[in-house]
Design a protein that fits this description.
β21 (400-406) and β22 (411-419) form a beta hairpin. The chain has 465 residues and is of the alpha/beta class. Strands 1, 2, 3, 4, 5, 6, 16 and 17 form an 8-stranded mixed beta sheet that branches. Strands 18-19-22-21-20 form a 5-stranded antiparallel beta sheet, sandwiched between helices. It has 3 domains: 4-40 and 92-143 and 266-343, FAD/NAD(P)-binding domain (3-Layer(bba) Sandwich); 152-263, FAD/NAD(P)-binding domain (3-Layer(bba) Sandwich); 358-463, Enolase-like, domain 1, CATH 3.30.390. α1 runs parallel beside α9 and α3 (48-65) packs across α7. It is globular. It contains 15 helices and 22 strands.
């Protein structure tokens, strides 16, 4: 006999796992979540929330400094870090209380599958709890990837955890990786007083975006004083007193007080007992559009699955997963939003905002990825500073918008916005992409004047509408 019998057990109590459990429980199923670390997960304490808390003050100062007649003054670093702590204090009691109040059982410890519909939880004191569940959901998230650099395990390198929970800003920082974490932390740390060097193996920053987006972020970072090394690798790293010494592929050395490794993430599926049900540990779990991995009982959501490693996409999967579990428990057929639309959102309509300065807000395909996917497309761009809303937003507004149009269907399959304060503009584009709204219909969506959204009209005009 199991110690606990529930309808749903979720391994992982980050925002994704919490959402699965809550969605299922609100519709009448009993639910438990298993968490070995902090309830609330990586996003709450070490990623999305604290990083944006660090970035918002420096972003706001830069915006004010662009406006004649006002003066933001110097940044109070201590106050910035204190405000960060208000949002991301690593005390999960509030999150745990929320689960309890919602009627969801929290099991603190490491959860492993021991067979079909069976999970064993090992607690910190060595005791175990066996759980029998009609549905098991893996929501274990991801951890930073460790690149093969000689000596990197011995120098106390930072990951996003140390970077977002720092107690004082170091005098200098070398960042390995020019993806989202790399460019965001370069923005924050340079403006908070560190001397930043960024090393990127590829030839441009944030390579998954439109090339011009990466170029403009690079220009902004370099204008701030960031030393960017593109097209080179880090071959070795060592400590020399209080400094980290990184050797690059061209033989040069970079010295800094700290090293931040921002070289991507990998799914955390190593020690979950997946082999007990015939699956290979250590790899992302391949889930279908209904988030199902195996039979009608094993599911994967968020970073543990093969989907986009973004909190909002994980929570989207969580809502689907919770509804699918409930539908199956009632003997209902799956369909509708669990098929075509789920595939659209997961494969071609993933939105993302990169909180650099300028911000990058994008959804769906870039022009290159659309062509790689075999689509016949045409991309048109327009400078946001050329519309009244952009020029009012900041003097010499630096930013642009691009739409990628499927010319056979005359619908938008991708959009990118780059510039100050463009983060919230991406949702309108997401609706257009997911809804496959014809350009002839979008022509009648009149943008308010004078706002930056007027760029939508200019894009349609540039396309020939």
């Amino acid at each position: 006999m199991a110690d606990l019998d529930v309808d749903v057990v979720v391994i992982g109590a980050g925002p994704v796992g919490e959402n699965v459990a809550d969605r299922a429980h609100q519709q009448g199923l009993s639910a438990a979540v298993v968490e070995a670390g902090l309830v609330g997960g990586e996003c709450s304490y070490y990623a999305c929330i604290p990083s944006k808390a660090l970035l918002r003050p420096v972003d706001l100062k830069a915006a004010v400094d662009r406006m004649p007649g006002v003066d933001a003054g110097p940044i109070d670093v201590a106050a910035v870090l204190a405000r960060r702590d208000q949002f991301a204090n690593p005390d999960d009691s509030g999150q745990a209380d929320w689960l309890s109040g919602a009627g969801i059982t929290l099991l603190r410890g490491h959860g492993r599958l021991t067979g079909e519909r069976a999970v064993e939880v090992t607690h910190d004191d060595g005791t175990t709890t066996s759980v029998s569940a009609r549905n098991v959901v893996v929501a274990t998230g991801s951890v930073p990837a460790s690149p093969p650099v000689d000596g990197i395990a011995d120098v106390g390198a930072w990951t996003n955890r140390e970077a977002t929970q720092v107690k004082e800003i170091p005098s200098s920082l070398v960042i390995l990786g020019g993806g989202v974490v790399g460019v965001e932390m370069a923005t924050a740390y340079q403006r908070l007083g560190a001397r930043v060097t960024l090393v990127q193996h590829g030839e441009r920053l944030v390579p998954g975006t439109e090339p011009e987006a990466g170029r403009r972020v690079q220009a902004s970072l370099e204008a701030d004083g960031v030393d960017i090394r593109l097209g080179t690798s880090m071959t070795a790293v060592r400590r020399d007193g209080d400094e980290v010494v990184a050797t690059l592929g061209d033989g040069s050395e970079v010295r800094a007080a700290e090293l931040l490794v921002a070289a991507g993430r990998r799914s955390t599926t190593d020690d979950l007992g997946l082999e007990t049900v015939g699956l290979e540990p250590g790899k992302p779990l391949a889930a279908d559009d209904s988030t199902t991995v195996l039979g009608d009982w094993l599911y994967a959501v968020g970073d543990a699955s093969t989907g986009a490693k973004l909190t909002h996409m994980g929570k989207y999967q969580a809502r689907i997963c919770g509804d699918v579990v409930v539908a199956r428990s009632r003997g209902e057929e799956l369909g509708g939003r669990y098929s075509k639309h789920a595939a659209t959102a997961e494969q071609t309509a993933v939105p993302q905002v990169i909180f650099t300065d300028p911000q990058i807000a994008a959804v769906g395909h870039t022009e290159a990825s659309a062509r790689d996917a075999g689509l016949s497309v045409r991309a048109v761009s327009y400078e946001i500073g050329s519309v009244a809303g952009g020029s009012l937003q900041a003097d010499d507004y630096d930013g642009f918008a691009t739409i990628v149009v499927d010319t056979e269907r005359e619908v938008i399959v991708g959009a990118t916005f780059v510039g100050q304060d463009v983060a919230d503009m991406v949702h309108a584009a997401t609706i257009a992409v997911v809804g496959e709204v014809p350009l002839s219909r979008l022509w009648h969506a009149v943008p308010s004047f004078p706002t930056m959204s007027e760029v939508w009209l200019r894009l349609l005009e540039a396309y020939g509408m």
